[in-house]
Structures are given as structure tokens and as C-alpha cells.
Fold:
Amino acid sequence: MKLSVVLSTHAAAFEAVAFKGDFVSNVAKIGGWGYDGVELAVRDPKLVNAGRLLSVISGHGLVVPAVGTGQAWGEEGLSFTSDDPAVREAAIERIASHVPLAEELGALVILGLIRGITPEGQTHERSMEHLVEAIQACAEAAAGTSVRFALEPMNRYETDLIHTAAQGLNLVERVGAENFGLLLDTFHMNIEEPSIEDSIRRCGDRIFHFHVADSNRWYPGAGHMDFGSILNTLEATGYQGFVSGEFMPMPEADTAAERAITHLRSL
Ligand code: LER
Ligand code: MN
Structure:
């Protein structure tokens, strides 16, 4: 099982990104603990230099399985489901602008909070129509490249749109693009899924990426989730991708990352 951990290229407000300080020294530490990759959180590809990122990352024997995009919503308010067409257009453009970066890094593009939250006065169904259209536009923008998109079902406290794997699969069907699948995150699944293992089995080869945090969003092993069973089930689907740690820096980032890899490797 290939393991990565989330690292922001810039300061970030999202609390479950353990690493967001000095990029170069964080990459060195992550490589030193034995991780295979770093998942990058990038608000705007214009702010990063792919060549420089790659040389630091590959210098430590690491790769980039995925690029997270949620800061564009958290810090700039870009949303696929805004009632303002200019905001929806800007969100689509921002995600499309990740395609060349993702292609150079060999990464997939995560669609998490960029889907937004249904604005007051807009129906849920209208938001879903906007969401389908936006993802279709992004999938089209990546046509002819190797870049894939992964929508992350997220718990009810963060969005009203797509909480469960079943809803995610339904969206995958509505979008109907080969380069569009799901990112499952054990923290959200622990809140929303009747059975984490059954949902993993149901998603099968539509699982493009996988986030791990324990029930309390600390590192795997710090809560009450059964990662042996979860990872066995994931492996049985034929999943070849990364298992990526997205957890809070508790008790602090270095200890969390080290304990996460120790626990996951022991399984
Ligand atoms: C992002 O991967 C995630 O899991 C969300 O909770 C972000 O708010
Ligand atoms: Mn996640």
C-alpha cells in the first residue's frame, strides 16, 4: 500500500492539513519517515512552480498522487454551485487551470469543498444541476490528458451536497465521464456511511483516491476505527492508488505523521 500525507504549499486555514509551514523541510521530513508521496493542497496553480516543486519532492524519492483544491473555496469563495454564474465560471476556470499542473506532477485533481454549499433561495436540485455541469466542463477541459478528477463525499457539517458514497456514485453516473471518480475519506465515512467496508466495495474501481484519518480526525490509530479491515477491503477492490493521511496536527504534526505511518505499515 503506497502512503502519502497532505502538505499545503502555502499557509492554509483548513485544520486537518498537518503540514503547512516550511515546504522544503516538511518534504524532507515526510520522505525521512518512509512515506511514498505527498498530496499537495494548492489554492491557485499560478502561485506555484511545478518544476521547483517536483525537484524538491523527487529529490526525496517522493511523488505527488493528488492535488487538493478546497482552499479556493475556503479562502476565495469559489464554488461550482453558487447562484452567481460569474463565481461558477471562475471556479470551473480555476479547476481547469489545475490540469497542466496535475499533468506535470502526475497527480489527480481533488474536487472537495469547491462544490460549495447550496445558497439560500436555491433548491438542492438546482445546485446538483450546477454541480453536474461544472464537473462535465472540468472533465472536458482535461480530455486528451492523463488527468483525472475525484469528488469527495463529505460529512453533513461541511456541505449539503454529496455526503455518502452512494450519492457520489449517483453523481458519477450523471456526469458520465471516464476521467471522473470518487475520493473516499474515512473521517467523513465514519460519520455518514452505514458500513464503511460495504461502501468501499460498492465504489470498487470508481475509487480514484483515498484519505485516512481516525474517528477523531487524529492520525490512524488514535481513534476507534479498524484500519486493518478498511485497508483489506480497499485492497480487495483492486485499488492501486495511494492511501493519503489527512489528519489534524495532534498532538503535533511530526508525531502525528510518524505514528500514522507506523500504524498503517503495521497492518
Ligand atoms: C478535504 O479532503 C476534506 O476532507 C474536507 O473535510 C475539507 O473540509
Ligand atoms: Mn478528505
